[in-house]
Amino acid sequence: MSANSHLDIGDRIQSNRVHGSLYHDEQIFQEELERIWFKTWVYVGHESELPNNNDFIMKSIGPQPIIMVRDKSGEIQLLQNRCPHRGNQVCVKQKGNAKLFTCPYHSWTFANSGELMGFAFPEGYEGHETADKSKLGLAKVPRVASYRGFVFGSMAEEGPSLEDHLGGAAEMLDRVCLTSPEGEIEVTAGFLQHKTRSNWKFLVENETDGYHPAFVHSSIFGVADSGIGALYSNKSTALARDYGNGHTEIDLRPEFRKADVPLQWFGTTAERLPDYVASMNAAYGEKRAREIMIDGTPHAMIYPNLFIAEIQLFVIQPVAVNETVQHVTALQFKGAPDLNRRMRQQTMGSVGPAGFLLADDSEMYERTQRGVQSKNPEWLFLGRGEQREYRDDDGFRVSHATDETPSRGIWRHYRALMEA
Amino acid sequence: MLVTEDSVENLVLYHSVSQFIYTEARLQDEHHYDEWEALWADDGVYWVPANGADIDPEKEMSIIYDNRSRIALRVRQLHTGRRYAQEPASSLRRTISNVEISVLDNGEIEASANALIFESNLRGEFVWAARNIYRLRREGASFKIAKKTVILANNDKALYTLAFLV
């Protein structure tokens, strides 16, 4: 084995520090595509984005476009947007409804489940040994699986099941769905696409970094009369949690339970959303509904690319070693129109290129990307809270919300994937 | 109805609307936040759609969809000195052209114009292009903005941070 077979990943990741080159080394990025993005389970889209048979929507796995389709039989398919003939893209529309995809180059036509329906001018292939229509369909992502409507794809033929990959973190997706009186979320509000000249891992780590909000977001907390700042103060009882497999969370429930006020998690009151509260009471019973409305939705990072930020759904897409796109929409809860309206309003204020919060996060990503290219010190120190971290009743590592337990968990998993 | 007749009255209206839009552009370029905010009507709406120009902002995500109080919040955040995406503030110069105006039945004026904006910030230098549509209300010798819609030419694509006043 050559010294460079794993690009010395082990030497660049230690228990509480990582080497700056991991964020800007082009070779590392190419290796990540093979070992993480084109291998493990990656979130692609939500079933509710394809309400009807033959609906399709353009999604991605890493830098590659993926057509997510509900085929004519209602099955969700993840297709590569590449004609098996000479490589042309068969679809350039963002979304639509189509039974067939016809490549514009030489008119090869495919069913929306991928199969090649026919060649144009077929005489040229008649009697040809390898012009086998059954082998010349659109390539499919080999493994597709859903959890609570969240659709994931894995480009590896074999590997851990989605259930194994999610592990204890699946419970966070359950918690998202609980906020709907019908137990389902919907992704129907369209996406903002915000790009940042930064490595994708800075975004993943930042999503459950509870240390930065008090500083990076002080400008908006200070003028918006927001209660969010206190959740991330050094006096907060909120927790950071590492679920393993790279999945992490900032668990704000201790703070909301202490306050004991339904819907405080969303900065509103039961009085302002009477229809929602009535639907929740009817669905879950008053006692359970009250608990759900106190706890709120999670602040959950499902590795490597699905981030639920209480009221928003983010998809993180790496496009180059120093370029990442954040796709973001407001979560919509089935059966909760009055809640959903506020979700959209708050989301538009907070996120996207002009968002009160995300514009500043992105500014930090870009400054950090430039910063780590300075040679000294070579390392980033991620040791905060290591000495006060402990295991919760489920065996997951937890610590104070401002501690770097999530980052350490993310890097532990990253190292395992890159050395596998 | 589009104002096309070359009457003196129309030329004066065209001139005064254009001057108002140029003033707004300069206030934005030079980060005179309070003076810019003062141009807005009490019920002003500042809209920067995403994914085209014909989406319903009540149902779908927009890049900006501010009512008057959120416009004020945006300005207050810029004033804190800790709005890092504008700290340091972008260096900006924009050109406004292709102004067309219509007088609406309620007496308001709809003006549209192209905007080409050069931005220099810590990340680099960038160009933004948009069609701006204003709904203006007469107030004394000047106007108030009842609605401003900024249709970025590439609003269906991933965009870098847009934290200056567009």
TrEMBL record, chain A:
PROSITE patterns: RIESKE, RING_HYDROXYL_ALPHA. InterPro entries: ARHD_Rieske_2Fe_2S (IPR015881), Rieske_2Fe-2S (IPR017941), Rieske_2Fe-2S_sf (IPR036922), Ring_hydroxy_dOase_asu_C_dom (IPR015879), Rng_hydr_dOase-A (IPR001663). One of its GO terms (molecular function) is 2 iron, 2 sulfur cluster binding. It comes from the Bacteria. SUPFAM superfamilies: Bet v1-like (SSF55961), ISP domain (SSF50022). Residues 42-139 form the Rieske domain. Keywords: 2Fe-2S, Dioxygenase, Iron, Iron-sulfur, Metal-binding, NAD, Oxidoreductase. The keyword Iron applies. Belongs to the bacterial ring-hydroxylating dioxygenase alpha subunit family. This is Aromatic ring-hydroxylating dioxygenase subunit alpha. It comes from Henriciella barbarensis. The lineage of its organism: Bacteria, Pseudomonadati, Pseudomonadota, Alphaproteobacteria, Hyphomonadales.
Automatic annotation (TrEMBL), chain B:
The keyword Heme does not apply. GO terms for molecular function: dioxygenase activity. It holds the Pfam family Ring_hydroxyl_B. The keyword Metal-binding does not apply. One of its GO terms (biological process) is 3-phenylpropionate catabolic process. InterPro entries: NTF2-like_dom_sf, Rng_hydr_dOase-bsu. Gene3D superfamilies: 3.10.450.50. Keywords: Dioxygenase, Oxidoreductase. Belongs to the bacterial ring-hydroxylating dioxygenase beta subunit family. This is Ring-hydroxylating dioxygenase subunit beta. It comes from Henriciella barbarensis.
